[in-house]
Amino acid sequence: MRYRIAIVGLLCTLVAGCSGGASSSQPAQVQPSVVAAGKASHLIYSVSASNNTIDYYVKGTGPNNPVAGSLSGSFSNPEGIAIDSHGDIYVANSNAENILVYAAGSSSPTGSLDDPNEFPVGVAVGPDGTVYAANLDGPIGASGDVVVYAPGSSEPTQTLHAKCFLHVIGVALDKHGNLFASCQAAPGAGHGEVVEFKPGSAKATQTHITLEGAGGLGFDGAGHLLVIDGSGSSATLNVYNVGSSKPIHKLKLPGAAIYFSFDRDSKELYVADYALGEIDVFRYTPSKLTQINTITNGMSASGGNIGIANTPAQQE
Fold this sequence. Notes:
By secondary structure, the protein is mainly beta. Helices cover about 5% and strands about 45% of the residues.
């Protein structure tokens, strides 16, 4: 089995050097009555790549929500996480070269999608159950790619390539089924890009979006494309009109982050801040972020909290 450093370490190498935040670990303050996964319909999931853990928190128990429980599994550098409209959870289990699947309500894996000789870091799920995995790297010496799993398949059914895919960071679908992928085309700052794949097409279309350092991406309820642009220990959340290469807003984040997640109505934004070791919760509009909560329980700046998701899942 080949192993690689977490995406945080790699991006710190690709772009400007990262500086760590506070190094002391926060104790995991678990609620007296631990909530089983799926028993509460409003949960926040946090993935720690370095600690090989996935904890969850109940919304509305803040400020600084206590840890309510955790998912179990044979984790090996887990990173991105996605939740589909049925509540099923998908975890990019990077160094294990697979995607772990948790049926709604389960705290242990109920299946897995094989990603042999690849290193999945980001994951997205279409309304029809098609799964897309962003592979940071391919086989030794090979660039990253995006693999596709047709509904019901546990093996890749298609592999997507693009010129910028030295490393692939994130994948996201818009409401029309277009797939967007963020990538690093070369080492060093200024080489982040975003490409688009039309439904049913394996040909990448350039969006001409350029980034200092490509992070995760997604869409708000109004259809704006959002991309994290990170360099060193800082990051912005760039907001774009689809079809435009220039952001209409650059929203400053407190620290450094790779992935984010919206609530069901796209009114609250959750950002996994690995530099500060926390989850930052914001009230969101395309022009402004208003921080309303900070969750640090069970996390530290050395824990590599990278992945973030919440239920109920964002509406398409």
